[in-house]
Specification:
Helices cover 43% and strands 14% of the residues. By secondary structure, it is α/β, with parallel strands linked by helices. Helix 6 (180-188) links the parallel strand 6 and strand 7 (196-198). Helix 1 (18-42) crosses helix 7, helix 1 crosses helix 17 (401-416) and helix 3 (92-110) crosses helix 4 (122-133). The chain is globular, with a radius of gyration of 23 Å. The relative contact order is 0.13. It binds uridine-diphosphate-N-acetylglucosamine. Uridine-diphosphate-N-acetylglucosamine (UD1) binds at residues 17-19, 62-65, 68-69, 89, 120-122, 160-161, 246, 278-280.
C-alpha cells in the first residue's frame, strides 16, 4: 500500500565534512527501515496513525571533492543529497556564515519537523544555530534539533571542534550520547535530563555494517602488502602501521609536525607506514618542504625494499581505509573517529594529541594519548606494540544506535503532536533503556 507523504514526519539530516557521512548513514538506514516496517506491518489493514518519515538529506559542501566526499556516498550507500549548499572552503567565520545563510533558506522552504546534526564540524554548529533561531509562524514554531554524538568534551577550547560541540549541545533539544563521559559532561553543564539519551555510536553502526564488505577492498594488494611476507611466504600480509594527521594544531605548526614525524622514525625502520594525506596536511607538507623526508611524491608507490619507510597516498575511501585499519599492526592518528573505530577493531592506537574527548577508547585499552613530543610518541608506540590486544567494548556500541535514534525521534514527534501513546507500545522500554535520568 502506498502511504501518503502528506502527514509524514519530516526529518532533515545535515552532512558536511568527511566524518559526518559514516555517522549519518545508519540514521538514514533506520529511516528506510521505519518506512518499510509500516508498509509491511499494515498492508491490507486499516491505516494506523503512525506516519512514514519523509527524509531530506542536506550536504553543506564543506568537503566537496571526490576523495573527501563523493566516494563516501558510494561506499556507504548514501542517497544523493536532496539539497547541496556548495559552500566549499574558507576561514571558520566565512564557512560558518555561508552555511548559515544558505541553510536558513532551506529551512524556510522545507519546514522540517526535526533537524538532525551529527558530530562537531563547522556544518554541525552552523545548522544547529540557524534552526534554534528560525521561526515558521507567529507562535515561533521551529524544528526539534537533535545532536548525534553529544556531550563529548576535550576541555580544550583552542580546538574549533570543542567550541562546535559545546555550542551545538547548548542549542539542541535532543542529545544523543555515545559514551558515559558524555552523560556526565552534559549533566555537569546543566542539560535537562529528559533531553539526554544514551543511544550508542552511529559511526560504529557503520563500521559493524561494512566490516565484512571492506574485506573485498583491493587496497592491500595495491600497496603491495599481499603475498610478500618477510620470509617470502605466499599470501601472507605484510606488517604495517597506518598514520593520519590533519588537526590544525598538529600540521599547521612546523615544529609540532616535525616532532610527530620524528616520533615515527623508529616505527618507520621497523615496518612500512601508510600515510593517506588529508588536503590540509598536503598543503603544509609542500609549504614546509617535507616531501623529501616522506619519500618524495605522493602517488601510490611502495616503500623501500627492506619493507620499511613511509607510503604516502591520497585520502582513501571508507572501505579501503577500513580494510587498512583492520589489518594494521598499529594506528597513529589525531582523528577523533579513528580512536573509536580502532577500539572496536581491537587495533592498538596511538593518539598524537594532548587530550581526547573520547575517554572510553582509553579505558577500553586500545588507545593511548601520547601528546606530540618525539620521545613520548616513540614510547607510546613501543608500549602499544608490546601490549596485549585484549580490549573491552563500550556500552551500546552494538550497531543499533541509528535505530534507537529514529525510535526516539518518532516517539518524541507524536508526544509533541499529542497522538495517543498507545501507538508506541515500546515507549516504556525505550525510556528505561536509553534515557538518562
Ligand atoms: C574538518 C573538521 C574536522 C574534521 C575534518 C575531517 C571543522 C572545524 N573541522 O577539518 O573536525 O575532523 O574536517 O576531515 O569543521 N579541502 C579540500 N577538499 C575538500 C575539503 C577540504 O581540498 O573536499 C581543503 C581545503 O583547502 C580546506 C582544507 O582542506 O581549506 C581544510 O578543510 P576544512 O573543512 O576547512 O577543515 P578540515 O581540516 O578538513
Amino acid at each position: 500500500m502506498e502511504r501518503s507523504e502528506a502527514g509524514a514526519i519530516r526529518i532533515l539530516t545535515v552532512v558536511g565534512a568527511r566524518p559526518n557521512f559514516m555517522k549519518a548513514a545508519p540514521i538514514i538506514a533506520a529511516v528506510n527501515a521505519h518506512n518499510e516496517s509500516l508498509v509491511a506491518g499494515y498492508a491490507g489493514q486499516p491505516e494506523p496513525q503512525v506516519e512514514t518519515i519523509r527524509h531530506i538529506l542536506v550536504h553543506t559542501g564543506q568537503h566537496y571533492d571526490e576523495l573527501m566526499s563523493g566516494s563516501f556516498f558510494n561506499d556507504l550507500n548514501l542517497p544523493k543529497p536532496d539539497i547541496h549548499l556548495g559552500v566549499g572552503s574558507g576561514s571558520h567565520a566565512t564557512q560558518t556564515a555561508e552555511i548559515m545563510k544558505k541553510f536558513e533558506e532551506v529551512l524556510l522552504g522545507e519546514k522540517p519537523d526535526i533537524v538532525v546534526v551529527v558530530g562537531d564540524v563547522n556544518s554541525t554548529l552552523a545548522c544547529a544555530l540557524v534552526t534554534s533561531k528560525i521561526s515558521f509562524d507567529s507562535d515561533g514554531s521551529r524544528p526539534v534539533i537533535a545532536h548525534v554524538e553529544a556531550g563529548l568534551r576535550s576541555f580544550d577550547r583552542s580546538m574549533p571542534e570543542e567550541v562546535n560541540r559545546i555550542l551545538t549541545d547548548h542549542v539542541s533539544d535532543l542529545l544523543f550520547v555515545t559514551e558515559e563521559s558524555g552523560l556526565q559532561n552534559l549533566r555537569n553543564e546543566g542539560a535537562s535530563p529528559d533531553k539526554i539519551h544514551f543511544v550508542g555510536n552511529t559511526m560504529i553502526d557503520s563500521l559493524l555494517h561494512f566490516k565484512e564488505k571492506a574485506e573485498a577492498s583491493t587496497i592491500l594488494e595495491k600497496l603491495g602488502f599481499l603475498g610478500q611476507g618477510r620470509n617470502g611466504e605466499a599470501n601472507s600480509s605484510t606488517r604495517y602501521g597506518l598514520l593520519t594527521l590533519h588537526r590544525a594544531s598538529n600540521v599547521d605548526n612546523r615544529d609540532v609536525f616535525l616532532n610527530i614525524m620524528a616520533g615515527l622514525e623508529e616505527l618507520a625502520t621497523d615496518c612500512r607506514i601508510v600515510f593517506p594525506v588529508h588536503p590540509r596536511t598536503r598543503r603544509r607538507i609542500t609549504e614546509f618542504g617535507f616531501e623529501f623526508s616522506l619519500g618524495k611524491g605522493t602517488g601510490k608507490h611502495k616503500a623501500n625494499e627492506q619493507g620499511s619507510g613511509m607510503i604516502v597516498t591520497e585520502p582513501l575511501g571508507y572501505l579501503d581505509f577500513l580494510c587498512l585499519m583492520k589489518h594494521a599492526a598499529l594506528v597513529v592518528t589525531d582523528s577523533g573517529g579513528i580512536q573509536e573505530e580502532t577500539t572496536i577493531l581491537g587495533i592498538p592506537c596511538v593518539t598524537v594529541r594532548e587530550n581526547t574527548e573520547r575517554p572510553v577508547t582509553v579505558e577500553c585499552g586500545t588507545n593511548t594519548i601520547a601528546g606530540t613530543k618525539r620521545d613520548a610518541i616513540k614510547n607510546a608506540i613501543r608500549r602499544q606494540l608490546g601490549g596485549n590486544r585484549n580490549h573491552g567494548v563500550p556500552k551500546n556500541w552494538d550497531g543499533r544506535a541509528g535505530e534507537r535514534i529514529i525510535d526516539i525521534l518518532v516517539r518524541r514527534h507524536y508526544e509533541k503532536t499529542s497522538f495517543r501513546s498507545s501507538l508506541f507500545p515500546h515507549t516504556e522500554t525505550l525510556e528505561g533503556q536509553y534515557a538518562c535520568r
